[in-house]
Each structure stands twice: as C-alpha cells, then as structure tokens.
Amino acid sequence: MKFLVLGAGAQGSACAFDLLRRDRVEEVRLADLNVDALPDFLEPWSDDPRLVRLPVNAKDVRQVKEAMAGVDAVACALPYYFNLEMTRLAVGAGAHFCDLGGNTKIVEDQEELGEEARAAGVSVVPDCGLAPGLVNILAQGGIDTLDEVERVRILVGGLPQNPEPPLNYQIVYSMEGVLDYYTTPVLVLEDGEVREKEALTGVERVEFGEGVGELEAFYTAGGISRMPHRYRGRIPEMVYKTLRYPGHAALMKGIRDLGLLGLEPVELDGRAVVPRDLFIEVVSPRLRKPDSPDLVAMRVEVAGRREGEERTVRWEMVDRRDEERGITAMMRTTGYSLATTAWMQADGAVEAGTATPAECIDPDAFVSELAGCGLHVRREERAGL
Fold first, then answer.
1. For burial by CB atoms within 10 Å, which of 3, 15, 173, 317 has the most?
2. Where does 134-326+376-383 sit in CATH, by number?
3. Is 6 left (phi over 0), alpha (psi -120 to 50) or beta?
4. How does residue 254 score in pLDDT terms, banded at 50, 70 and 90?
5. What is the DSSP-derived secondary structure letter of residue 133?
6. Separation CA 276–CA 301 (nearest Å)
C-alpha cells in the first residue's frame, strides 16, 4: 500500500510514523512546504526508501496532483480550509481520502462529492481525528448496541500532566483552534431538539482514574460534528464537552467576555489591532511548553435500553506522552486515528462514497487497530442509566 500524508506538522508526522510501522506499507509520502527537518521520532526512517519527503505547496494544484499519483490513500493533516479542494483532487486521482475535519460546512460540501467518489471506487471520510473522529465512532457504537438511547455524553480533553497556574493548560495543538471552540456556539440535543449552548458554560466536575483526578467538563464547539442533526427527534440528549483542570472555564469565560478574544479590530495608537491576534501573540509563548508532558482523557457514555432493560455503555481512555520517542498524547490520539482511518480505507474496510467516521467505520475494528498502535480504549457496560 502507498499513502500520501499532506502536512508535516505534529499530527501529520505522527500519522506518517504510525503508517510506517504497519506491515504491507510500501511507501509513505510526507508532503509539506518544507520537509527538510524531520521530528526525532521519524529519524529511524530518514534513510528508508519507504519514507519519501515531498516539498509541496498545497495551493499548487499541479504539485498536489503529482504527489497523489499512484497512492492508495491520502491522509490530510492540513488546516481545515484545504480539505474540500484536497478531497476533489484525491477523488480525481482515484485515491481514498480522509482528513482531520474541523469545519461542519466543509464536511457538508465534501458529502456532495459522494456520487463522484463512488464512481471512482474510493471512500472519502472527513472528521478523522480524536474529536471529531474516534469519539464519534465510539458514540455510534454505543447507539448501535442499544434498542433505545436516552443520552450520549462525550468528554475529551488534552491536558498538561504537570498543570501550572493560572490556566493550568498548555498548547497541545493549535491556539487558534482552541479559541474557536471557546467562542463558537455549541450544538447539543436537548429534549430531542438541536439547540445552541454558549461555549464555556455547563460546567460540571468529573473524576478520572489513572492518576488524573478531578477535572471539569464544559460545552465547546467542534467535537460532536453533525451527530446532533443526524439524531434529532431520535435521541433526547446528546452533548460534547471539553475537559480541563478545575477553574479553567471561568478564567477563559472572563477573558472572552471582556472582549480579548474578539475578531473585530480596535484602534490602538492609530493602528487596527484584532484583540484575538494580540491575545494569541502574548499568551502563546507562555503556554507552549514542548518539554512538558501532556495527557489525553476521554470518556464516551451512551445510556438507554436493550430488550427492555436499562443499560449504559462507556468507553474510556487516558493516554500519556510517549517519552521514549517524544510523541505527545495529542499527536498519538489524533495522528494515529487519522492513520488508522487511511489504513482501513486502503485495506477495503470502508465502502466507496462519502461518510463521516461514525457512519462508515466499525468501532470494534477501529479500537482493535488502535490497540496495535498502543492506544488502549476500555469498554465497560453496566445495568441502569
């Protein structure tokens, strides 16, 4: 099998690493504007002909087409605004395609390419990271195992193992992405209807084992993808919340409510300044701690009835940074999930056409594949709601 990974940042590099470890992978092309410097964990393949570094400008259609020629699947770890055009080019090249998602409108546009993808005999699967991605697959698995579903609760967070005040947070992927999730209206199912909630509200305390302890969960956008719309009128309650250490939501809500995360420029000494840009510029250096280990905590819970009996199905995972290789927990859970999706597509486990992971990927098979990558998702089932 031959793969193309678009984007050689943190998630793309982790995706390439996971693919290179798999049997039957003949070639992994890692493409970006600059691919001269590899992260340390890819160094073992620096002289391996299976790893091909391609300097590619994603805005140059000719370069992208050349990079896609002859591959079985494309895994896209570029910023979300490239996803639609990369999808079109992959379908045209006769290659399966998956990406990290991040924008529901673009996912809807990708779905319109379904007939073209089926005609080409390829699958297109957007939203393939941790959240959206893995959590949606698990939620769907719970929904499918019950006759009636009362509620779906998804809790996910990327956290420092050694939190430092005042925010007890460190950047684990993109500060811009985090702030989008903190400022965008949140979709939930409430009484079976799609409703909007304010981000950074709905705070509740939750406990995690494996040395994590007490966390807080609160509404944020993005992670639930389009599932509330799919299950409108069929499931009474469905929520997605982000996990942080206690007190984080109140601090960030105060910062947001003071206007410091706004996108409308303000005049400062005769210059137009975007408050969010200034905030990111000032805060990011203080939250970017590459030597500080991170962890990912995840819980997906689906409650309902099977054969008239109340049942609750729960999946849970706590993953920590791979210290030996220097791969963060966020890179592992997101990049490996993307790689696993691409692998399953190339292996024929996903039907041709366009669908989100929850609609087309078998949860048991996916969890089994992740276990082979060192990501262990525990499933429990108990009586009651």
1. 15
2. 3.30.360.10
3. beta
4. very high
5. B
6. 34
